[in-house]
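Example 3.2
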Amino acid sequence: FFIKTTKDPALYILKMAKRSAENGDYAGGLFLINKSKQQFSTTKQYNEMMKVHNFELGFYNTFKRWKKHLKTTSNIVALGKMKIVEKELILEAVEKLKAHAGSLQKKIVRNNKSGFTKFVQNIYNNTLIYFDALIGLDRKFAYLYLYYQGETALSSKDYLRGKNYYKKSISFVLENKKESAKLAIAQKSIDSLLYMIEKSKDSAYLDTRFAYMANTTLFPTSKKSRAIYPRYFNLELKDNKHDQARVILNSYIANFKKDNKTQQVLYIGLVDSFIALRRTGVLAKTIKEMKSGFLSFKPIYIEKTEVTLGNILFKKFYKLEKSGD
């Protein structure tokens, strides 16, 4: 009757369902919910449908029907993606799901003290699902929900999955506007990622490179970046990624001009790599650069590098001459 004759049918039906819930009548409340959803689906009253879904979240929470709670969450996300529901109703769902996900996180922390049981595993998996739902509904705060997923994984010692969540959160900040709130979360994510790398050696090299890149990109003048630049440089140099190593060194020089001695050592490492690989063309360019006053090298080092280049070239010409005979 209410569905067919009132302007806001969900309001009246949900009052009746709420009364059923307060009286402990799960079956009665569920009957009203299902009937209204069936009708709203037929009549394509999507705002009314979302009102029912939002009510369902509290209803199933009261009666601890977690499978139905998850199913409703999935329905809410699907409806939200259609972009035909009032924004206020989406925001209401987001607030309810945030509160629920937060309560599950607390349960994980409490129950983890007795070991990562099957019960905790189930809560853990569901928590991640709820944050996925929030990402789908509230995309602009995806970086925050991904960070929370990383924190959830960290508290459950799921380091491999946790690293991926932190990296996604950081990537979101790297790709979007660098607002102070986002940067604060990015810094926490980088710190947690570096901690997890120590705990999980899987893909440690790639994860470390990513963490170093993120920190020096987002916080180029920070104390932590100052310590990271030499490590990051050596990581790239070890793989003969000279161009990337040079980009890192340039950034280090631009942001910490007083670290001249350390920067000289890094540059010498680059020169030594060119020597080992017999890259005479690039080596000649580095000598020219040093002669121009770059990093204030002493003449004696430049002269030694010139002699080394001469020896390499001599050996090359001698070898060519010999092969020509």
